[in-house]
């Protein structure tokens, strides 16, 4: 059975650097030697519990945060992370480009509208929506009022009226569409 050992020294070094301290400055605040801090950071020495608590206090954290195995939040998403769904009847493809966006404040999608395609009709809801036409031309319908939006143009509206997109052209249209709160 293989056990994984936590690299305490590297975590201490990372915290020290995040706080803008040299080894000497940290050592002085703790009445320790610079050499001892170096040994800790290289995992050549192990601090007592009291010393570790003191170091973490100076570095602005506590023992539970220091030892938590929290997974770092993903900030970059690749095409392989996207979830895509095609709707042949409405002639559109939707790509959810930020996985699990429902837990965030906004939800971005890419929607491709084939010629004569349209999005689902959204019922009125709280929030706002923004779109940027990346390719082609779409007709934005908000409360039955139609707005032509061409490539390079944007749209923005409060979502308290029914709304959807249509493509009345013979070319594909592609739109980056962002809803807050997440609704897609």
Automatic annotation (TrEMBL):
InterPro entries associated with the record: Cro/C1-type_HTH, Cupin_2, Lambda_DNA-bd_dom_sf, RmlC-like_jellyroll, RmlC_Cupin_sf, TransReg_Diox_bact_type
Domain HTH cro/C1-type: 12-66
One Pfam family from the record: HTH_3
SUPFAM superfamilies: lambda repressor-like DNA-binding domains (SSF47413), RmlC-like cupins (SSF51182)
Signal peptide: none
Keyword DNA-binding: yes
The keyword DNA-binding is assigned to this record: yes
Record's keyword terms, sorted: DNA-binding
Protein name: Cupin domain-containing protein
Organism whose genome encodes this protein: Paracholeplasma manati
Upper lineage: Bacteria, Bacillati, Mycoplasmatota, Mollicutes, Acholeplasmatales
């Amino acid at each position: 059975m293989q056990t994984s050992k936590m690299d305490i020294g590297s975590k201490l070094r990372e915290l020290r650097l995040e706080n803008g301290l040299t080894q000497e400055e940290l050592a002085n605040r703790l009445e320790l030697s610079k050499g001892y801090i170096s040994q800790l950071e290289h995992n050549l020495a192990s601090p007592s519990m009291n010393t570790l608590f003191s170091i973490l206090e100076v570095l602005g954290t506590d023992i539970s945060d220091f030892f938590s195995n929290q997974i770092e939040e993903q900030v970059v998403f690749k095409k392989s992370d996207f979830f895509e769904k095609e709707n042949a009847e409405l002639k559109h493809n939707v790509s959810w480009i930020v996985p699990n966006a429902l837990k965030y404040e906004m939800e971005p999608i890419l929607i491709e509208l084939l010629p004569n395609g349209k999005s689902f009709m959204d019922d009125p809801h709280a929030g706002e929506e923004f779109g940027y036409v990346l390719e082609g031309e779409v007709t934005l319908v908000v409360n039955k009022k139609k707005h032509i939006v061409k490539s390079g143009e944007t749209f923005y509206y409060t979502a308290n009226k029914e709304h959807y997109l249509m493509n009345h052209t013979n070319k594909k249209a592609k739109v980056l569409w962002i809803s807050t709160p997440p609704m897609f």
